[in-house]
Automatic annotation (TrEMBL):
It holds the Pfam family CoA_binding_2. Residues 35-134 form the CoA-binding domain. InterPro entries: CoA-bd, NAD(P)-bd_dom_sf. This is CoA-binding protein. It comes from the Bacteria.
Amino acid sequence: MRPTLLPLPNPLPKCDAESMTFRHQNDPELIRELLIDPGIWVVVGLSNNQDREAFGVSRWLKVELGKGLIPVHPTAEVVHGEQGYPSLSDIPDGTDIKVVDCFINSEHVGAVVDEAIANKDRLMIDAVWMQLGVVDEAAADRARAVGLDVVMDTCPRIEWRGVRSAGMAR
């Protein structure tokens, strides 16, 4: 059942300290390490739909950063020349995965994180990355509890600007 959308108040509430929420704080060094590592990224939610953000970001990861890429989507499509799989559990044994990048809604990401946890050793998964707007603190805690690194509520393409700038300053 879809929630009923309510009209926004007019005027909109003012932005002040009382109404502010605190965005998840990611470790900048972890982000840097994940982005400069040449390892394979699994992109959950990736299909050939060019209108989806997952398509453009995954293309950027492959073309600009030279990442190995594995699409995960129920349709198991070949995307950017890479064979897709319907789930993490369908990826062949021994595949060494650096990051499971989640382009799915927050309400569904917990199940993907749990699947990453279940396949952590089989697929040598190092980290889970929840895209911009995807937040599930409980799932992040479960992942960290088994030794997975977690980045949440941000996009690698956005973070790359800071990594690249910091690298130039070093």
